[in-house]
Amino acid sequence: MLIMETAGLAQYGWKILGELRAGETEAVLADHPAADSIDRTHLRDRPSLSFLVSPQNNPSRGCFLGSSKTEMQVSLGNVVLIPPRTQIRIRADDVPARRLLNCTLPLRGEMGEIEAHARLDRCLNVQNVSVRTALLRMVSELLSPGFASETIIEGLGIYLSGELANYLQDNRHAARTGGLAPWQLRRIDDHLREGNWDCRIADLATLCGISARHLMRAFRQSTDRSLADYIASVRADRARMLLQDESLSISDIARELRFARSAGFTTAFRRLTGLTPTAYRQFQRGRH
What we know:
Elements: H1 7-10, E1 15-22, E2 25-32, E3 35-42, E4 48-52, E5 61-64, E6 74-75, E7 79-82, E8 88-95, E9 98-104, H2 109-112, H3 120-124, H4 129-143, H5 149-169, H6 182-193, H7 201-208, H8 212-223, H9 227-243, H10 250-256, H11 262-273, H12 277-286
Antiparallel strand pairs: 1-2, 2-9, 3-8, 4-7, 4-9, 5-6, 5-8
Helix pairs in contact: 4-5, 5-9, 7-8, 10-11
C-alpha cells in the first residue's frame, strides 16, 4: 500500500483521516479547520476532484485563469473538477470547518482534450449522480479499508476519469462491448493466486491486452461481479487458508497478503467475515 505525502497538508491544520495512492489515482480524506478567508490557485497536470463531504453548502467562488486573468467567477458546488493543465483560483470568506475528499485521477485521452474554459459552470459544480456515488464509495474505503481497497480506489479513479469526460462532452455512455475471453479470465485468476495481491488494474489489463476501463466493464459482464470484489474474495480465501496454519502469526499472514500493517489486515478481515483473524482461528479450532 503506497501512501500519499501529506506533510504539506498538515501544516495548514488539516487532520488526515485516510489517504491512499493506487495506480494513477491518489485520494486524501481530511477535516479542514475553519478559516477567516481562503485565496488559492491550483494548476495540475492531471484531473483532480474536490468533494465536500460535510452536509453544508460550499461558500467558495472560483474562476479559471486565462491569459487576461479576468475570467467570470461562479459559485462552487459540493463536487468540483479541476481539469488538467487548467489554472483555477478559489476564494471564500468565513469558511466553516469542513470535511473534504481530494483526489487526483488518471489522465485519459478524452479528459486531456476537454476545453474546460467553455464549461466553467459544469466543472466547478459537477451535477452527476454516478460521480457522487463513486466519491462516496471512495470515502468509505478510506475510512474503513478492506481487502481490495487499493483495487477499488484505482478502479474508481479510472471510472471517474471516463465518466467526467463524458459528462463534460455531454456524451452518453458508449455501447457496452462483450465480456472477457476464457483465457483472459484464467490469466487474471492465475496472476492473483500467485500472490500478486498488490497488482494494479492497469497491470491486469496489460495481461489481457485491453484497456483498464474495458477490463472493468468486461469483467463485470463475464462474472456479474466487480473486479475489486473478486480480488477481495480471492485474497480472503487465501487468508482463511493461511489462518489454518498455526505456525504463522497474524503479522506473518498480513505480510503475505501485502498489508502494510497487521491492524489493516485485521480490519479488512473483520469487515468481510464479521470476525477478527484471531477469533476466526479460535472458531476453526473449536470445529476440529
